[in-house]
Amino acid sequence: MQKLIVANWKMYGSKTMAEAFLKTFLYSKTDTYNYIFCPPFTLLASFEKFLNSQKYILGAQNCSSFENGAFTGDISAEMLKEFNCSYCLIGHSERRQIYHEDDEKILTTKIQQLLKHQITPIFCVGESLEDKKQGTAFQKIKHQLNVLKEINNEIIIAYEPIWAIGTNKVPNIQEINEMHQFIKNLYLKPLKVLYGGSVNPQNAADILTSDQVDGILVGRASLEVASLLALKER
C-alpha cells in the first residue's frame, strides 16, 4: 500500500502561485507516494486543472454540515464534488480551537454530507500540551473519535498533536507509533492513520518508515515546491 502525503495549504496561495507550483512539482513525477492537495476553496479550480491522475488528487480543507440553503460563506460537499474533490479535511485542530468546531453532532453531520457525495473524510484528532502533561492524551483522542462509532464507510484519521503544530516540536517515533496503534485498535477493520504536526523534509523520512504510519499531513512545508520535492526524493 502506497503511503499518502496530504498537503494542507491553509489560507495561503494565489492562482499565479498555484499554477507555477503545480507545473514545477508535477514535472518531477514519482511512484513513491500518493498526494492529496487541499488548497483554499478559491484555488480548487486551479488545482483541478492539473490534478488528473490517481497519484495527484484534489481535496478540500473543510465543508458545511448543511446540504444547501441560506448559509452565507459555507461550502457544501455537493459543491466540492463539482470540482472533483475526492477528500476533505474535517475537525482540523485550528478549526476546533479558533472556531470551536468540536461539536460531535456537527462533525458527524459533516462526515455524513461528505460520504453522501462520495468524498472521503480525513478526520483530524489531537491532544493539547496540557493533555500530554496530565497523561490524558489517549483518553482525549478516544473521545474525539466517538463521532465515528456509527460510521462504517472508509475514513482516514489524521493524528495531529496540537502542541506540535507549527512549533517544530515533534513526538518521537515511539510516541507516534503508540498513538497510531491505539487509534487502529479502536476499530475492527483496517484504517489509515496519518501523522501531522511540524512535518518537514528533515523528519518526514523517519516518520514515513514506520509501519504504523500510513502517511503524513503537511502544512507549512507543503507551500514550497522545494520542500515537497524533498519529501518526494527521499
Walk me through what this model shows.
- The longest helix is centred in the N-terminal third of the chain and has 13 residues, at about 15-25.
- It contains 10 helices and 8 strands.
- The chain has helices at about 15-25, 45-50, 75-80, 95-100, 105-115, 130-135, 135-145, 175-185, 205-210, 225-234; strands spanning about 5-10, 35-40, 55-60, 85-90, 120-125, 155-160, 195, 215-220.
- An 8-stranded parallel beta barrel has the order 1-2-3-4-5-6-7-8.
What topology does this entry show?
Blueprint: E1 3-8, H1 15-27, E2 33-38, H2 44-50, E3 56-60, H3 77-82, E4 87-90, H4 93-98, H5 104-116, E5 120-125, H6 129-134, H7 137-144, E6 156-159, H8 173-185, E7 193-196, H9 204-208, E8 215-218, H10 225-233
Parallel strand pairs: 1-2, 1-8, 2-3, 3-4, 4-5, 5-6, 6-7, 7-8
Largest sheet: 8 strands, parallel, barrel
Predict the CATH topology of one domain. Answer: TIM Barrel
**What is the name of the CATH superfamily of one domain?**
Aldolase class I
Shape: globular
Question: Which strand-content bin applies to the residues?
Answer: 15-25%
Figure out the total of helices: 10
Helix content range of the residues, please? Answer: 25-40%
Number of strands: 8
